[in-house]
Amino acid sequence: MNRLALFVPLALFIGLSLVLLLGLDKDPTELPSALVGEPFPAFNLPSLKDEQSTLTEQDLKGDVLLVNVWATWCFACRIEHPMLNKLSQQGVKIVGLNYKDQRAGAVAWLVERGNPYQFNIFDAQGSLGIDLGVYGAPETYLVDAEGIIRHRRVGVVDERVWNAEFRVLFEQLTGAEQ
Amino acid sequence: MRLAVLVTLFLSTLVIASTEVVEFSDESLRPRFQQLVEELRCPKCQNQNLADSNSPISQDLRREIQRMLEQQMTDQQIKDYLKSRYSEFILYRPEVNKSTWLLWGSPVVIVLLGLLILMRHNRQKPTATASSSASADDQQRLAALLDDEDSQP
Question: Interior CA angle at A152 toward A109 and A105, to 5°?
């Protein structure tokens, strides 16, 4: 009995090691999303192209689409942009949320790199960003036809991320629509 | 040279440490503001609270908290507001629920376990000392040896 007790520390150590080992696979920068399954937050913001026209959450309804948070100061957005162009060519509808940016610079960016967006919401103060819980651009939300957020990705969406996280869900949602 | 570098580094921390001035209509809001920004976590920077972080998102959130305090919202309402956007991650003092009970409960369990081990250990002690003094012969020999050593120059 006493001999067995000698193995208690070893067992504890192995148990702790296993817990820590499992923790290694987790990405600490990935926050649990509070908004998946919730409606897209209400907003009333100007469009990037036209200062006079305002956009609201109603403009997002009716179609399955991606809402992509981007800015010209965001380096990773440069890397992501070609992928968005490609998705847009494949018929994926993308709405841009231009986040805490300068209007002129953002318009020039779209001329220079191509415009994959249906339209762009211009959020200079980051108010919609706070309502969405944006903490790092780029971020991408998959929003269904009823305006419910179905998936969120913080960071670049590339071929791998699209295939792993978005494609199946997107096809399901658009398939259900027909 | 080294001194110059150290002085420069020291001064640069002073520059970084200067944060924006927060103005309140009612000074009694300031301690609550201070408490909140110290207890809420910057979503971008992992292990910094909103008070310490200079990232743009922290600046925005500090401004939001100030705005909500001015609107007479309670601390709990402000925390709920941020939690519904940034998830529980933002709370440095998480609420007790099914994913945090282990976090909150384990210190209590560990202290109880320690007390239990300590109690068992203390109960075994008298028998342990008894066994060590069991042999009177050995005690005598020991005393003799010690005496022997003392008498040597």
Answer: 15
What letter represents residue B15's amino acid?
V
Is A110 strand, coil or helix? helix
| Cα→Cα distances B67→B15, B29, B50, B58, B76, Å | 26, 11, 15, 14, 15
Mean pLDDT of chain A: 89
- Please give the ipTM for the structure prediction: 0.75
Residue B24 corresponds to which tokens in the numbers above? Answer: 């309140």
Query: Which residues are within 8 A (CB) of A156 and not within 5 positions of it... i.e. 6 or more apart?
Result: A76, A79, A80, A83, A138
The pTM assigned to this predicted structure is 0.72
* Count of beta carbons in the 10 Å neighbourhood of residue B14: 8
Alpha carbon distance A165, B90 (integer Å): 25
Query: What distances in angstroms separate CA B46 from CA A27, B50, B114, one per listed residue?
Result: 11, 11, 32
Confidence of residue A31 (pLDDT cuts 50, 70, 90): confident
Mean pLDDT of B85-91: 87
Confidence of residue B88 (pLDDT cuts 50, 70, 90): confident
Helix axes A75-89, A103-113, angle to 10 degrees: 50
**Shortest CA gap A148–chain B (Å):** 15
Would you call A32 and B60 a contact, using CB atoms and an 8 Å cutoff? no
How far is residue A4 CA from its own chain's centroid?
A: 52
In this structure, are residues A70 and A105 in contact, taking their beta carbons and an 8 Å threshold? no
On the question of pLDDT at B52 being above 60, the answer is yes
Contact between A100 and B56 using a beta-carbon 8 Å cutoff: yes
> Which residue of chain B is at minimal alpha-carbon distance from A27?
B46
